[in-house]
Amino acid sequence: MKSKTAGDFLQNKLFLIVGAVLLLVAPLPFGTYEQNILIMVLFYAYAAIAWNLVCGFVGVLSLGHAVFVGLGAYISTLLLIHANLSPWIGMFIGAAITCMCGVLVGYPCFRLKGPYFALTTIALGEIVRIWVLNNEYFFGIDIKGSMGLLLPQTGFQPLAFEFANKTTYYYIMACFVVIGLIVSYRIKTTKLGYYLTAIKSDPDAAESLGIPLARYKLIAMAISTFMIAFAGTFYAQYYRYVGPDRIFGGDLSVQIALIALIGGQGTVFGPLFGAILLVPISELLSEYFGGKVPGLHLFIYGVIMMFVVFFMPNGIHDYVMRFLKWLERGFWKMLGKGNKKPETANL
Amino acid sequence: MSAIIKLENVSKHFGGLKAVQNFSGEVEYHSIVGLIGPNGAGKTTLFNMIACTFPPTSGKIYFEGKDITNFKASQMAHMGLARTFQVVKPFGDMTVIENIMVGAFLKTKNCKVAREKAEEIYEFLGMTCGRDQVAHNTTTVDRKKLEVARALATQPRLLLLDEVMAGCNPQEKLELVEVIRKMRDSGITIIIIEHDIKTIMSLCDKIFMLHRGEKLLEGTPEEVANDKRAISAYLGEDYVNA
Hints:
With 347 residues, chain A is an all-alpha fold.
């Protein structure tokens, strides 16, 4: 977190250090219920960061990214059950295979524009979900169809990615999120990021400047699907169960996309902000209203989302950044040092 | 001198519309060539074919002796051709300097090198809109210049300029003419589409005149200016003897 590039990014390490400290101490004062919420915040943040790498940067709307979460989860879990391979290794195999599938899917899909891309990815997600739901075997491998896979109990062995307390899971997911942010930042500030943003703004102009559109979109897709597969493995190891409805379902796809969209498409921290805002709201609303008036929590959640989309169509990222800058100015003023810092990079 | 670009009987039909018909011509190295003609004459269509935005219906195009008829637009940038668009296409969310950097990345992977190159071009074109201005906040004239800057950043040998001076005031036009001459002196061949005949006459070594998709005239500015067919194409038969 304290690398030089990260320092350049905020011009000032203050907020990165505060953020890192918050990330480290966040689970400590809480019980398991609140810790579970925190883990879900990070899980969705990481998935949205990975989604953002292709969809946010290139400007397409994928509503089928749960397929890649599911692939990662199924591959590492099947390797654990049938080959007794540690998920720590299995997740990399899962990521590699998912990445290949991502490129295969991306190749035809990127020829489609706007709503057609979104519709195709929805269809893809549904096809995979229904297929897994109805098939017991995949090339002779027992995938248990609609029952889903229960992960074997290994007796809390760290090597088998099974832990007794939630805090460990929290820190593992926190590492993923930090890696995801670093990858986003690295992409954003190199040739690849400039090219992807150019493709998003104007494909024709980008092409005339020598950017092969298809190749760069596929590179982004490969990185995105490689990363999101790890979220799948984590999900499986954390809940000790993977089932087609939960992990391939459209709900998860939409949730990931919404978090990134509301957080701020194409930004480094946007998906993280989105997850910090939306996940606790949804959890707490169902906690308070879930039992009293059925459906009320979803209604309120929807209304909040409408307000965000209506007043901040580009996501909350810019507003949060502005707020942080304001806080920073206040902080330095309080110390009597005045604001000598240059403007924060607009990322 | 040999030709940097050579067109052989190039035609483009959009359905029944014959946008360009049997166009042949050559452009020599280190020259400035003008492409003129009334609206709808097929000038931009010709540009799009040279830049490989779409292939011609028939005919062949050679770039530095190589057949590029069916190349892709992105390949042409690597070959050494850059273009601007008549309807400007800035990368709206990026800053001016970042826009130029995207062009500069063709020749380098390094962000710092690209930024330096972009700064250099910003100075060269005498741009005044502010390096860190977000592109969609700039004026039309600045966007026209940005188009040129971005194309120039790819370090091309052939530059296609599609009506870059439209919307500029006389002073700005003079500045751009100077810049275009400087570009030619640095070794870039330029093909330019322009409606302002005065500018084109003072700038070009050779002029092609298109009319209804066909090449009407080819020659030096003086030859074209004195040709009756040019007058009739622009103003109608009645003015030929006026």
